[in-house]
Amino acid sequence: MLQTPRGGAGNGTAAEDRRLMSIGAVLNALRDEFPEVTISKIRFLESEGLIEPERTPSGYRKFSPQDVERLGHVLRMQRDHYLPLKVIREHLDALERGERPSLPSLGQPREPGDAWGVSDADEPTAARVGRAELMAAAEIDAEQLADWETYGLIVPLPDGGYDAEAVTVAALVVELGRFGIEPRHLRAVKSAAEREAGLVDQVVAPLRRHRNPQTRAHAEARTKELAGLTGKLHSALVQTALGVRLP
């Protein structure tokens, strides 16, 4: 349970000062568990009041171990429970006050009339999220979601729900939007992803059609492995083309 307040490294002792971390060091500390986290994501979470790192006289952010722990909680709750940032902030603040709140669930409203509560039909499963849940997690409205669907960035399942990965896509589209990148600009990214998926599918398709269940299970593992490798290659090629290297 979180017991130290945000910005708790600011007590001024030399020992605590030595434990403060730069934003780059925080990124490296989190990336093993959260490989998609970026510096802009950390800055955004700060702007939303989820963390309050210290600032040096020159304006650089310095993060305490408690800040890093809190960041991990935020990212974990987004990834595993698809919760809006407002709900996550309220939950963690309650923990810091010494309370023992139950983990909020988007499948049930916290209080009567809560706007983000959804019906039983929209209740999430491990591989599916409902429409209302997706909008709540991404903090977008129906018009934005419809726009993303028009460009094929978010694709509903036949039953009207969404693959859980849609939450990740939605979060990234929102974050790119903060840089002025609109859904229509992402068609090339979508096309590149479909070509990469087609390449992976060519490799694993014979395994998927095999009669042996173990071989079909191997196909799923091979698909995940190849998806990870092509994703890393894509990222490396983009960095090379831009002449930059991410920390």
TrEMBL record:
This is MerR family transcriptional regulator. Residues 37-94 form the HTH merR-type domain. It comes from the Bacteria. Residues 99-121 are annotated as: Disordered. Keywords: DNA-binding. InterPro entries: DNA-bd_dom_put_sf, MerR-type_HTH_dom, MerR_fam. Gene3D superfamilies: 1.10.1660.10.
